[in-house]
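Hello support,

Our group uses your service weekly, and this is the first time we've seen a run hang past the timeout. The protein is Telomere length regulation protein TEL2 homolog. I'm not sure whether the cause is the sequence or the server load. Input pasted verbatim:
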Amino acid sequence: MDPKLHDVRNTVKEAISTLHSSRDSAQIQETLWAIKRYLDQSENPPSIKQKEEFTRNHFTVLVQSLLSNLSPDWPEQFPSEEAKELWASFFIDGPADQSFMVLLDAIISAEPSFRLNKAVDTLEQFLRKSRLSALIWEICKQHTEAGSPVLRETILNKVVCLPDHLGNKLQEVNRPVFYPQNYFPLLGMEIIQVMERISGSLREEILSVLVPHLTSRTQSDCIWQRICWRLFESVPDRWMEAVVCGLVQAVPGPVVLSRLLGNLVVKNKKAQFVITQKLLLLQYSFPSQLVLKILRIFIRSSSVSSVLTGSEDAEKYEAALGVLETLIRRDSATAQEMSVELAKVLLHLEEKSYIEGFVGLRQGALVAVTVADPIRVAKYLTSEFYSLNYSLRQRMDILDVLAVSAQELSRPASSPSKPNASHPSIQIISHNSSSPDWKKVVEERVRSKTRRPLTTFDLLGDDHLVLGRLVHTLAILMYFALHAAVRRMESFLMGFESP
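Update from on-call engineer: The timeout came from a worker crash unrelated to the input. Re-ran successfully.
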């Protein structure tokens, strides 16, 4: 036998001997605490094999000993409430099927005595602590393991016939909780809890297989993304809550959740209610902190991004664009989770003539997300600058955003958001500039290519205007990087000089 398993047997044997022979309260409690470590998460927990050895081969004998050694001087051996709870915890926290059978057998076989009353008290506590559901769950698990069918049948018979057993034994002193009219509704609720647990377990098993595959397939394949979106959009409303809740707990992060659900929150009212309201109300029922992080990130980014990319509601569109910069600056750590995605949405955002200050709002949000995550967003913007199928205006926007972001990043963290007059500053050329010379230079070029994507990009030819602007922006970047308190912008500057 494994020496560690042998230690478990010796420890239980010594504990039973102490329970039989000792009347010293401190010694008995110390012994029980030493045994309790096989049921709880202690500072120095035993191995999994040791716990399994205890629950499978020694638990029943131990709790039988706890009951057989009950005597009228029990209150003296367990004087405090903590000591009494320690004794009862073996029946409440231990394997439910074994605890139930030991308690019921002790009640049936005992004569009227303190031992009988204590066993009845403990069984009543067992029922009120919803341990019947744990018992039924253990029986359900045994169907998938190498358990004894005869034992399962015996336990189920005892569960169903409990009111008869207690009624026959206790007669006129029977407890209300054991009356059939009270016990069977309780049993019904316990069965419902087990069924919900089975349903949740099956859902977790399905999602544990489904989510990793969908995550990998949708990462770079737009066809799989559309298939996934259609899959979740087709879920009936009556099942939507279960699917969304399970998915929120199964995904590794908010980016994946957003990629799998797409615009579901905007398109489906039930999903919108679950994500934006119900899950927030029930957030503390989820043990994982990741779930909370997903909900504060996903709701903001998904709602705002979905409205900006797919909403036809002018009021929602304007409101989303108006608050986006504030949301990003309020929680930069959250913005980093979706920084590149937000930058992509904003860069490709079509100008809405009915929104006053549209260009400024979009640029402000782009600057905010660049400042929040300068390395990743700057790499994205600089790589897109040299890509084809971008208009002249979009390339100018990229240069403006990089320049303004560099200026903001060059200031100490404690500095105000607007530049101080005492600090040197370089004027950033803006397309809104009122300079007549600037307008003359760009008028014809902007008119022809601002709205139309460029299929070619020739900095030394027709697009020399952009080259001049690029050199100007590089000078700004170098200047602010030189004087930056924290040089977060320097790492990508050299790579920006050539495509």
